[in-house]
């Protein structure tokens, strides 16, 4: 079983979410009194709304911590920022991590590329090790298929 998650983006997103929440909370506490020469004044509801916006913004940052890849002998499960996929190894032609690509991808037999955002180039060796582990699982599956084809008698 292989479980992979990005490292660098998770740290950046958690830190950014915390900073955003603190900034919006500070702004919310400073909102009080009249808005200037006009008739409006900041109310308690305005302060709560600012904190709420900070919470929603922080949750938006945390969406980028969602990607992961899990693989075993049966197949691979990819969860990206939006969308999740479960693929058996039979539909996978190969695991690619092209030079200059921001993340790895699965090359499928129907010529589609399935991005794996969890294996990001920013994670350097961690991503390379993850791609190698996925390739080993894929090759083991290919070997089992070849072995099964050799032991099946022809009719």
What order do the helices and strands come in, and which of them pair?
Elements: E1 2-4, H1 8-30, E2 33-34, E3 41-42, H2 44-62, E4 68-71, E5 75-79, E6 84-88, E7 92-96, E8 103-108, E9 113-120, H3 125-151
Antiparallel strand pairs: 1-4, 2-3, 4-5, 5-6, 7-8, 8-9
Helix pairs in contact: 1-2
Outline the structure in words:
There is one protein chain. The chain has 155 residues and is of the alpha+beta class. The protein has helices spanning 8-30, 44-62, 125-151; strands spanning 2-4, 33-34, 41-42, 68-71, 75-79, 84-88, 92-96, 103-108, 113-120. A four-stranded antiparallel sheet has the order 1-4-5-6, with helices on one face. A hairpin with a 6-residue loop joins strand 2 (33-34) and strand 3 (41-42). The model has no long low-confidence stretch (mean pLDDT 91).
What ranges have pLDDT less than 50 throughout 5 or more consecutive residues?
A: none
- Rg (C-alpha, Å): 24 Å
Secondary structure tally, helices: 3
Can you tell me the number of structural domains? 2
Question: Strand portion, in percent?
Answer: 25-35%
- From the spread of the alpha carbons, the general shape counts as elongated
The helix/strand series, from N terminus to C terminus, equals EHEEHEEEEEEH
Instruction: Indicate the mean pLDDT.
Output: 91
CATH top level label of the largest domain: Mainly Beta
Task: Please tag this protein with its features.
single chain, 155 residues, alpha+beta, PH-domain like, 2 domains, four-stranded antiparallel β-sheet, three-stranded antiparallel β-sheet, 3 helices, 26% strand, elongated
């Amino acid at each position: 079983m292989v479980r992979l998650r990005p490292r660098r983006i998770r740290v950046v997103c958690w830190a950014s979410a915390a900073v955003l929440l603190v900034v919006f909370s500070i702004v919310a506490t400073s909102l009080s009194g009249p808005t200037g020469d006009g008739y409006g004044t900041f109310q308690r509801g305005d302060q709560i709304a600012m904190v709420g916006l900070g919470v929603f913004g922080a949750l938006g940052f945390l969406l980028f911590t969602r990607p992961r890849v899990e693989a075993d002998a049966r197949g691979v499960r990819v969860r990206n920022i939006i969308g999740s996929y479960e693929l058996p190894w039979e539909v996978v032609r190969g695991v690619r991590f092209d030079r200059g690509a921001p993340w790895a991808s699965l090359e499928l037999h129907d010529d589609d590329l399935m991005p794996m955002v969890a294996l990001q180039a920013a994670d350097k060796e961690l991503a390379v090790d993850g791609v190698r582990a996925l390739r080993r699982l894929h090759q083991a599956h290919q070997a089992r298929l070849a072995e099964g084809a050799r032991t099946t008698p022809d009719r």
